[in-house]
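Bit of a strange request maybe. I'm writing a small parser for structure token strings and I need a real example to test against, not something I typed by hand. Could someone generate the tokens for this chain?
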Amino acid sequence: MNSVTEIKNGRLYFDGCDTVELAKEYGTPVYVMSYTEIAKRLTELKEEFTDKYPGNRVAYASKAFCTVGMYEILKKFDACIDVVSGGEICAAEKAGFPAEHVEFNGNNKLPSEIDMAVNYGVGRIILDGLQEVPLIEAACKKYNKKMNIMIRITPGVAASTHDYIVTGKKDSKFGIPLEEDVFMPIVKQVVESEWLEFTGLHMHIGSQLFENDAYLKALNVLMDWAAKIKKEFDADVKEVNFGGGYGVTYINEERKDYSFFMDPMMELLQKRADEIGIACPVAVIEPGRSIVAEAGLTLYTVGQIKDIPGIRKYVSIDGGMGDNIRVALYQAKYKGIVANKADEPTTEKVHLCGKYCESGDILINDMPVPASIEMGDIVATFSTGAYGYSMASNYNNNPIPGVVLVKEGKSAWMVKPQTYEQIIQNNVVPDFI
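Reply from user aminoacidic:
Good idea to test on real output. This should exercise your parser:
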């Protein structure tokens, strides 16, 4: 549990709010996000990176948790955002997010999304496809705008994490392959384009990482190619995007300070820039999970309980893989607690399972619970702020839960829950049925 989580009078409190009362007021399942915890992480980034190394940027990875309210918080902390879809661009526009502080990423940007990004005037487009240059140029001509371009590389460094969240190895759908006859012609297109301004290079090696050696290896590879670009085209790499991926606590992992990653990266960046003979590039990082994961929890109500003697006990909740797909997708692990019996001894272990029509819909295997657990109890699962709401689905036609923001005992909707009618509002019956 983090600094905004405490147990009082036998109940779980989160950022000053009684979670049992939150469940009563807002219903379950429901995501709960702590403003205080988000602000804490954004302050740490400011102190350990942008204040320490002036001129650099934090671009929040929107995919972790994207809402208009989240963008409003980021504006207060002068952060940039990394977006990867037209929907995220739309949310940024709705929040009035400064276009120059938006960076557009993605391995298959749709022509319509590129059009949106250029029309909006995003600060940078991060090139990630072999056929993207003419698409971006066409949009630039249409709106008579020149666009800053960073090129995402595939550094060929395999980070130590789950295969599904490794993105920097050579065999990856992300980034431009670092083959001379593939990569350099792409650079040439950008450097020589009248509509594009070559700004720098981008990398992202994976997620949920706790060591910095892979980052340093990847940065060395990136700067080797910066040297080649300087020699071949006399073009300076003015910016380097390190990506994100900094690990957080789900079970008992020990998260590292941002400075653990940033300090050696900045030292190496300066060293390599000096060797190449260019000014030290502006450094950009893209944290997402590390800002919001531990700032969130999800509340559920216990339903059916099935005790199979000699095998196991299943405790069913009113949510599951529809609001947290990470467990089924890549065996993510979480901790949980019975929020209304938070100080009772946990004397047995149960499988906390969802209501979805899949055998794999198990959120926590062998979760310790009090023997008194019963229908109607409130269960909280921790560290669900990242990739909970953002990956939620309507599987089995279940509504996507809402999001409640809490701050020092106050609470309010950040995202209202879906209704059944909203799920089927776009359903139509063809006249030939």
